[in-house]
C-alpha cells in the first residue's frame, strides 16, 4: 500500500524546512568566519519561496480532501495542526534568515507533536530541527565535555564571588570595630 500523496508532500516540505535551517546555519557560519554567503543567500531565498508554495499546496490538498470527504474530520484536524506547525516553522526560518532572531524557540505544539505519524523522519524531530549553533554537529561526548567546561567556568565564577563577599564581610567587621573604638 502506497503512502498518501499529501503525507509524501508533507514529508518533503519538512525536509525542505530542515535543509533551509541547515543552510541558514551554514550562512551564519560563513559570515562569522569572513566568508562570502551571497550564493547561500540566493539559494535560501529560493528555498523559502518554495517552502511557502509547498505549504500553500498542502493547504489546498487538505481543503480538497476534507471537502470531498476523502479523509475523516479527525485526520483533517491533525493535518491542519501539521500545517500550522509548518507555518510557524516558516515564520521562524524567515525571521532567522532576515536576522530578526538568533535561534527560534521550539513551540510547545511542535515539541509535543513530534511529527506524530511520521516514521523515521529527521525533520519530524523538533530537537534536531531546533538544535543550537553551539551543539550542532557535535557528538554526545563533545556536548557533555562542553557542558562540563561551562559548569567549571561557573564554579570558578562562584568561587571568585565567594572570595569577594568574604573580603567585604571582613572589611565590614573591621569598619564596625573601628567605629566601636572611635565611639
From TrEMBL:
Domain of life of the organism encoding this protein: Eukaryota
Keyword tags: Coiled coil
Keyword Ion transport among UniProt keywords: no
All copies of domain T-SNARE coiled-coil homology, residue ranges: 148-183
Coiled coil: 41-68
Protein name: Syntaxin-8
Protein species of origin: Lates japonicus (Japanese lates)
Taxonomy of the source species: Eukaryota, Metazoa, Chordata, Craniata, Vertebrata
